[in-house]
Amino acid sequence: MRAWPLPLIVGGAAVFVGAAFSWVPSFWWDEAATVSAANRPLGALLELHAQRDAVHGLHNLLLHWWFSLAGISEFTARIPGAVALGVGAAAITATGHKLGGPRVAVASGVLFAITPRVTWAATEARSYAFAIAGAALLTLLLVKALTAGHTRWWVAYALLAAVSTVLFVYSATVVLAHAVTVLLLSRDRVRFAVAAVAGAALSAPFMVLASTQIQQVSWIPPLDATVVRTILVDQWFPQAPWAAALCAVIVVAGGVVAVRMGVTPGERMLLAVALPGFAVPMTVLLAGSLVSRNLYLDRYLSFTVPAMVLLVGWALARVATRWWTLLVVFVALAVAVSPAYIAQRQPFGKAGGMDYSAVADRLIEVSEAGDCVAFEPTISWAPTSPRAVMDARPDSVVGLDDVGLGRSAAERTQLWSSDAAPSESAVRAAARCTVLWVIADRERDTPWKLWHPNNVWWRFEPYRFTDTETFHELAEAGFEITDRDAVHRLQLIRLQLGQTQ
User: CB–CB of 237/243 below 8 Å?
Assistant: First the structure.
């Protein structure tokens, strides 16, 4: 096999692996925030990110244009991320080939494609997939610049460093990691410094804006003892601890072989790129979290995956010296990551088992044009009301009269629309509706809680719709419950105006 098609082959395979069944999991509120922001006029989108969530602004702008062409669905919201990850897989394969040869290239690229954090990012309509791809491309550009020495590679590096930072602000730490790499290699320090400063200067206005919105991450819990497992497993291998253990064994074994047999100059450069590539961002964010507010979450370090797989891929190539042994290890890794992959692609596979998409599909199925819709304003386990269903899937309320709307997200310059007071919703419903669908929390008699990957508990408190102010106001207005449809976390309740009204 010729060397040059390898990045294309591995990149294409990564797109396929990432995109497969990515449309199955329901949207959840983070993705609803993405759709809410991207699905509004350009001016309103820019106004929103000038005030909040600037860190996702460029990603949402890209999706704004994409949605105008492809429409909004689970697949269209996620496929750009899968394609970006294919680019990242191609870049890391090319880097591995440049520094270690074809076996390192294949090992690194395949590991990238099946790493659970990558396959998770392919089902997440956020900027994480683009951050991963940006880090992989930035690493490739660094290697090209250091080995080829042409100024054009440093110019490209500076531009991509700025774009990567704007796509995901923590990606700026990749440049810090590369500074360590250049210091270790003693090559082109001046041109690297110029490129790094240029990239920082280009992204400086964005960094200033993002710093004014630091309260956006004030909800992150402080670091505690769980951070050890988070670093060792969840950061790169969520729901796949055996894959994490196997990769650790591979790295140790590869290191032993390298000590005994030595390394080539290319491998020395690979290690100088890979080790700082994940160690420096982790150290910076963890140190910052210890001295100030916590900025560390496992998914926030997604962009360190390229450096990690480059190291593991190199170690695997040192241990598996024949292609068939490489294949055996790939099979073992595929088995180890398969539970995570399958779990990620279940209908309720998102954090907390959210069911926004299932509720939207069910509402479309059971409602009729002219029916009314409203959302219970409060819910114990989410920071938003179930109205986020509509923000994630605006098609679910097409043809329905939204009598429960307070103000739209665009009008509020917020991520979420607001709900009208129950009394106001009831007055509107009585005047305009015969059939009203209310999306509310699911009935439960006893409380329970669920551990969320954000290191917080989601609390599902006892709930009865008939005990709510919403129901009492609607009952006073003459509405009666005629049907209930429990989905997973939420339910659809059909109410009809009584015949005496």
Answer: yes
Over residues 216-261, the pLDDT tens digits come to 777 788 888 888 988 999 999 999 999 999 999 999 999 999 989 9
| Cα 384 from chain centre | 19
Identify which of 94, 187, 202 has the alpha carbon closest to the alpha carbon of residue 157: 202
Give CA–CA dist 166/222, Å, rounded.
Answer: 26
| Strand stretches in 188-281, DSSP E | none
Kindly report, residue by residue over 366-380, the tens digit of the pLDDT: 999 999 999 999 898
What is the mean pLDDT of the segment spanning 107-114?
97
What token pair was written down for 181? 């790499």
CA distance 406 to 326: 59
Mark out the alpha helices in 149-188 (DSSP H runs).
151-167, 172-185
499 CA to centre of own chain:
49
| Token pair for 480 | 């009666």
- Condensed to tens digits (0 to 9), the pLDDT of residues 380-394 reads 888 889 999 999 999
Structure tokens at 168: 């995901």
* 496 membership: H or E segment, kind and range: strand 490-497
Per-residue pLDDT at 3: 47
Cα–Cα distances in angstroms (integers) from residue 46 to residues 58, 60, 157, in the given order: 10, 10, 27
